[in-house]
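queue> pop job 88
queue> type: inverse folding (structure -> sequence)
queue> payload:
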């Protein structure tokens, strides 16, 4: 049984962007096309990968497993394609890596900006965590990456910040909910900058914590929070999640973003840095204005 990689890309985009509309926008496809790709992939894999969650979508348990396996499949394919076409820059795709926390608030606009600068070169997106993205950049598998931790990569450029907030779902999101001690927390699998930020803040606030659910991907974290398994520090809301205010949920309110890139991408990235900064700054201002209202 063979899988169509276009169907795989559409499914993973829906998982990463939290909905068909934003996935279609990022992929430059119509919403019916993306939905059709997902349905055909579900048929090939023998069961539903996504389910309705209010006005958005949630990943089913089968979909969680599929997302992990298919990311690996797509990574192997894209790595081979990049290496085989690297000597012909006109044919090689421009591969942008990004942490998941940039996907929801700013990425569709940034992909459009990047496509405008790459001409006829196709643009591919690789969503992962900072550590794997840095390694892929140094191995030549990425042209550039937006990360939360630049590590030891030379020439990292600070892009600005992305706003953060604590969210709850299920019984923990009801008015007047009493949070147990220790506080149940949903987090990314370690190592993870976001996980460390949140747990350190709660420790400094004097709250004991218990990790009640973990996931390597944002979709899994959101699903666990939506089910009421614990609170989570996130960069954006989703259907069924309620923002929390007051102590100990009064920070951290933002995290820094960095751009790391190959030396030969200067022409493409000229101006892209400024576009990232403008977009992230606008999202941060909007979030803070909404919180103050």
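queue> result:
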């Amino acid at each position: 049984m063979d899988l169509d990689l276009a169907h795989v890309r559409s499914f993973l985009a829906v998982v990463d962007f939290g909905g068909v509309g934003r996935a279609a926008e990022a992929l430059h496809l119509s919403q019916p096309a993306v939905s059709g790709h997902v349905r055909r992939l579900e048929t090939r894999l023998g069961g539903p990968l996504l389910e309705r969650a209010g006005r958005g979508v949630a990943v089913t348990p089968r979909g969680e497993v599929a997302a992990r396996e298919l990311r690996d499949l797509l990574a192997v394919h894209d790595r081979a394609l990049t290496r085989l076409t690297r000597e012909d820059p006109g044919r090689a795709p421009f591969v942008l890596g990004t942490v998941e926390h940039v996907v929801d608030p700013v990425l569709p606009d940034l992909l459009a900006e990047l496509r405008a600068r790459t001409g006829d070169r196709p643009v591919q997106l690789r969503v992962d965590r900072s550590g794997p993205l840095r390694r892929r950049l140094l191995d030549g598998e990425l042209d550039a990456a937006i990360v939360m931790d630049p590590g030891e990569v030379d020439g990292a450029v600070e892009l600005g910040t992305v706003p953060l907030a604590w969210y709850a779902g299920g019984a923990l999101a009801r008015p007047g909910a009493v949070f147990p001690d220790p506080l149940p927390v949903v987090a990314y699998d370690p190592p993870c900058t976001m996980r460390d930020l949140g747990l350190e803040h709660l420790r400094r606030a004097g709250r004991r914590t218990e990790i009640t659910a973990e996931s390597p991907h944002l979709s899994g974290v959101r699903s666990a929070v939506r089910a009421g398994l614990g609170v989570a520090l996130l960069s954006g809301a989703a259907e069924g999640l309620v923002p929390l205010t007051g102590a100990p949920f009064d920070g951290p309110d933002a995290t820094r973003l960095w751009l790391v890139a190959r030396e030969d991408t200067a022409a493409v990235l000229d101006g892209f840095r400024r576009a990232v900064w403008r977009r992230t700054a606008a999202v941060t201002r909007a979030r803070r204005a909404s919180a103050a209202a």
